[in-house]
Design brief:
The protein is built from seven helices and no strands. Helix 2 (17-31) packs across helix 4 (47-65) and helix 4 packs across helix 7. By secondary structure, the protein is mainly α. It has helices at 2-12, 17-31, 36-45, 47-65, 69-73, 75-81, 85-107.
Amino acid sequence: LMEIYTQCLSSLINSCPDACVDALLDTSVQHSPHFDWVVAHIGSSFPNTIISRVLSCGLKDFCVHGAASADVLFPSAADKRIPKIASVVGILGHLAPRHSESIKQELL
């Protein structure tokens, strides 16, 4: 099932990458933390696209919901105010061991 989804995503990722990743993040938020590894697994097939889009979607969500500086110190408070941030962190955490350089590059 994962391979079928990965093939479908490979067809769609070039035409509407934001929509694809946003849909993955929305699903991940609904089923977090249990679904984060699925997004990370899919992300391993498209590391550059998924990493950049996950960071972009996470930043957009952060900007929409805002956060106080205390939220950085207490992530559980931020998770409630910024729905996708926990999933973004979980996905990047799963991708980091194999794609840390790509994550660093996207952050710079």
